[in-house]
Amino acid sequence: MQDFTPESAAGPQPGRWPRRLIVGVAAVALLALAVSSLFADGGAHTLDRQIMLLLRNPQAPDDPLGPHWFEDVMRDMTGLGGIGVVVGGGLLFAGYLWLRRRRGDVLILAGSLAGAQLISAVSKLLVARPRPDLVSHEAQIYSASFPSGHTLMATVTWVTFAMLLAADFEDRRVRDYLLLIAWITAIAVGCSRVYLGVHWPSDVLAGWAIGALWMVVLSRLVPRLRGR
């Protein structure tokens, strides 16, 4: 998924599929760990609770650790996976692709984001996990807990942006940097969801895992996401 060099006529470049395979295996492992929390009373779910409480004042669980300004920073971070940023950013980036006469990439972008949103909605509906009630919520919530929709959408949105934007650059270091920024953003969004008390850590793990798996699938089905 992170290799953007063009494929040769003979087939995939050596080493590219193993890299995607590693990402896929890691994502499946994270997803399995996240799913286990749905069925374990004393296993992974206990870890969920321990991690969430570590981010709160021991004397006042409704008070997140850190100064008030840091809570505002976390709310800013969580917004990077929100529907407003995803749709707004997607439209702005689609305009850039259109001006670059990359009309096919506009469709790829739309399919990537719409597919991820559908996966998120269906997963939430099927699992129907309640939101955490261990601590107070520092952000508004509108849907079920598993998986974290903000985390899933941040992963897919920013990684898709990076993969499509990378086609405009020859320098491999620039392309790797774009992907690095995308993944850092996705990680920050996921961590903010736990910090704000609106998701269990396993919800976030599932969001990262499903988002990564969706990008692996797309990169196999859409050659445009693998090279110029």
TrEMBL record:
Positions of transmembrane segments: 21-40, 79-99, 106-127, 147-165, 177-198, 204-222
SMART domains: acidPPc
EC number: 3.6.1.27
A Pfam match: PAP2
Reaction(s) catalysed by this chain's protein: di-trans,octa-cis-undecaprenyl diphosphate + H2O = di-trans,octa-cis-undecaprenyl phosphate + phosphate + H(+)
Superkingdom, natural source: Bacteria
Record key words, sorted: Membrane, Transmembrane, Transmembrane helix
Residue ranges constituting the Phosphatidic acid phosphatase type 2/haloperoxidase domain according to the UniProt record: 107-219
Record PANTHER family: AT30094P (PTHR14969:SF13), SPHINGOSINE-1-PHOSPHATE PHOSPHOHYDROLASE (PTHR14969)
Protein's name in the database: undecaprenyl-diphosphate phosphatase
